[in-house]
Structure formats: C-alpha cells, structure tokens
Amino acid sequence: MGVGGEKFQLGTVGALSLSVVSSVSIVICNKALMSSLGFNFATTLTSWHLLVTFCSLHVALWMKFFEHKPFDSRTVMGFGVLNGISIGLLNLSLGFNSVGFYQMTKLAIIPCTVILETLFFRKKFSRSIQMSLSVLLLGVGVATVTDLQLNAVGSILSLLAIITTCIAQIMTNTIQKKFKVSSTQLLYQSCPYQSLTLFLIGPFLDCFLTNQNVFAFNYTSQVVFFIVLSCLISVSVNFSTFLVIGKTSPVTYQVLGHLKTCLVLTFGYVLLHDPFSWRNILGILIAVVGMVLYSYFCTVETQQKNAEVSPQQWKIVKGA
C-alpha cells in the first residue's frame, strides 16, 4: 500500500508539473505568435495542435509505447465533438465579451463543476475544500477581472461555454474510470474528432472574429517556426490535461489552470515588463493562499480515506 501510494503521488506530481510547464510555455509561444506576428487564428491553430497530437500518439503507438484499447465508439465521438465545441464556444465568448467578463466565465467553471458533480455524481465537497476554492476564486478575480461589460449574446455564449467545458472535463474523468482506459488511450481515440470539429468550424469562426482569412495569411518563416513550436508544445499540453484530470479531478484541473494564469501574469511582469499593479499582486497572493489551502485539505482528506480503507482491507485478508 505504501509503495503504491508513493508511486501514485509521484505520478500525480509529475502530471501537475508537466501541465504547468507546458501550459505556461505554450501561452508564451502563442503570445509571440499572435501579439508580435499577428497570427490571430486561435481556433484553427487549436485544430492543428490536436492533429499534431494525434500524429505523435500514432507514432508512439507504432513504437509500442502504449496499447490501443478501443471502446464504445459513440462515447468517443460524442466526447471528442463536445470538447471541440467547448473550445470554439470559449473563443466565441472572448470575441463577444470584454476580457473581464471572459475571466469571470473561466472562474465560473469551478463552481459549476462542483454543482454538477454534486447533483449527478453525489460527490461531496467538504466545507474546507469549498472555503479554499472560494479564496482561490477571489484571488484570481482580483488579479484578472477588470471591466465587466454585459451583453445578451455574449452572456449566452459564456453560459454555453461554461456548461460544455464542465461536462467535457467531467467526462474525461468518468470515461477513464468507467472503461478503464488511460489518459493516453482516451486522448488518442478522441483527438481526430476534436481536431476535425475545430478544423471545420475554425476558419469560419476565426474569420468572423478577426475579419481575416487564415488561408490568405502571409506565412513567413518566423510565423511557421512559432506555429510548429506551438504544435509541438501542445502535445504535452493535451497529454497532461487528460493525465491530470484522470489522476485527480476536474476541479483540481481548474485550480491548476488558475495557478497557470498567475504564473503567466508574473512571468509577463518580470520578463516582458507587462503592466502590473498592486491589485494584480494582491490577487495573486490571495490565489496562492487558496491553492495552498486546497492542496493541504485535499491531502488531509486523501490520507483520512486511505486510513479508513486500510483496516477494512486488513479485515478482509484476515477473514479470507
């Protein structure tokens, strides 16, 4: 039990670390691609990310790094299409809303996930966990939310984006457990459907939001270099996303996402000299306190559950 627990903890820490490093890296890369080079086709770029991820996993499968495990094709297709739609809706939400309202949309994903898991999966969140999540959301809100401009279309898109994102992330966790597939196996099978969904809607969505044609863009060697780099980093981002949700929970993944936001803000201030205020600093500090509390309470509750399970297993062994 002890060795297995240590391996699980090391695997979880590794997944969390990979997710943070790869996500922060791709944000920096995409910022250079979009802000400096003017390539603002986010949805189409995401479809390329998923296509490269699928090709990379196909090579890994050919080299026998993991085993292909087919399961319910309808579930895989529905999951892949839903993931693609949720990404498109998030991009649309950003296009129709102010940055501040978009940040509120991302913050709303955590409480929405908690509500859905409580209602449909009977999952219980202790008051300590709820309190730590509240502190985290307060900190991220203070650090990132500025203007809140509401409009009917933007609000509806944000609501749809929140719901689809929550359901997709909950499905990531439940599918892996229900069909006993690894994060790699699920990602490999769902990637083509995600990529195809975004590739079909991406050019139209990007053209609608930017008034530019992705296929008419001037692809200089520098632009191509950053696109290739972004696609390569995305392999780690996509893999670590499924890995983290599979090993922990959708809520923990969202908490990790807000940690990435704080790191990106800090990185932008320290290295890129982005505008920073006392409000950003205060918000990040509050968010870090919330993350530390969340990690602490999760660890304590996990240890308590393990302590309760061990005596029961010992009784079963003695009875046998």
From TrEMBL:
It holds the Pfam family TPT. Its main location: membrane. The chain crosses the membrane at residues 12-33, 45-63, 75-94, 156-175, 196-217, 223-244, 278-297. Signal peptide: none annotated. InterPro entries: EmrE-like, Sugar_P_trans_dom, TPT_transporter. Residues 22-295 form the Sugar phosphate transporter domain. Coiled coil: none annotated. GO terms for cellular component: membrane. It is found in: Membrane. Keywords: Membrane, Transmembrane, Transmembrane helix. It comes from the Eukaryota. It is a multi-pass membrane protein. PANTHER family: SOLUTE CARRIER FAMILY 35. This is Sugar phosphate transporter domain-containing protein.
